[in-house]
Automatic annotation (TrEMBL):
Listed transmembrane segments: 15-32, 82-102, 114-132, 138-158, 170-189, 211-230
UniProt source species: Anabaena azotica FACHB-119
Methyltransferase found in the keyword field: no
Keywords (A to Z) from UniProt: Hydrolase, Membrane, Protease, Transmembrane, Transmembrane helix
Protein name, entry field: Rhomboid family intramembrane serine protease
UniProt similarity note: Belongs to the peptidase S54 family.
Length: 231
């Protein structure tokens, strides 16, 4: 199922949403270039979110305060990991959801508040992942947590909107109008296809099955709660 549009009309253009989508796409093109040159693994392992590295850096800082600079760098990884993606299907799926649902949330909150909401939701989701799985050594990358929060906020504010969608059946595409609540469910299902078109990231890859997948539910609740409080 592919969401296309919500047909809502807003007075302001979602400039921040456009910029977020553009930045993610440009960085993914850079990743493809690094994959060809064999440098992608270093980027992902350095700037992706590796919970074990963050938790180990915090433990070392408690023993040796001089190691605090390492903690600061590692705590930056939940933010940097949001702009890295591990496959063509992940970047396309995430950006499509951000395109459809992000513009409505930006018009609700305004540009700067929306930017802070998006980045904050992604970082908080990353920190929760560190707390839940502090020994995980596989890099976690992608804007999944931030976009899950955007989706939760959208459904909370526009619960009765229908989303124009397309059901692809090989060579036939069937147009449908689906309730927005359907995409709370479909968000998790479509991520099972995120392994399609994966980039080569040795030695262990990225985003292997873990509790991080379910931490996006926390992000959805966070997004819905924020919009409710803001209203």
């Amino acid at each position: 199922m592919i969401p296309i549009s919500d047909n809502l009309r807003f007075r302001r253009r979602p400039i921040v949403n456009y910029w977020l989508i553009g930045i993610n796409l440009v960085i993914f093109l850079w990743e493809i270039k690094l994959e060809v040159s064999g440098e992608l693994s270093y980027l992902i392992n350095s700037w992706g979110l590796v919970p074990f590295q963050v938790s180990a850096a915090i433990k070392n800082a408690l023993i040796n305060p001089a190691a605090g600079i390492v903690v600061f760098w590692r705590l930056f990884s939940p933010l940097s990991a949001m702009f890295l993606h591990g496959s063509f299907s992940q970047i396309l799926g995430n950006m499509l959801f951000l395109w459809v649902f992000g513009k409505g949330v930006e018009n609700i909150l305004g540009q700067w508040r929306y930017l802070g909401f998006y980045l904050g939701a992604g970082v908080i989701t990353g920190l929760v992942q560190i707390l839940v799985e502090p020994s995980l050594t596989v890099p976690l990358i992608g804007a999944n947590g931030a976009i899950a929060a955007v989706l939760g906020a959208y459904v909370m504010h526009f619960p009765k909107v229908e989303i124009d969608s397309v059901l692809p059946l090989i060579l036939v595409y069937i147009p449908l109008a689906l309730p927005v609540s359907f995409y709370l469910f479909w968000w998790y299902i479509q991520q099972s296809f995120y392994g399609i078109g994966s980039l080569s990231i040795p030695p262990v890859g990225v985003n292997q099955p873990s509790l991080a997948y379910w931490m996006q539910f926390v992000a959805m609740i966070l997004g819905a709660a924020y919009i409710r409080i803001w209203r």
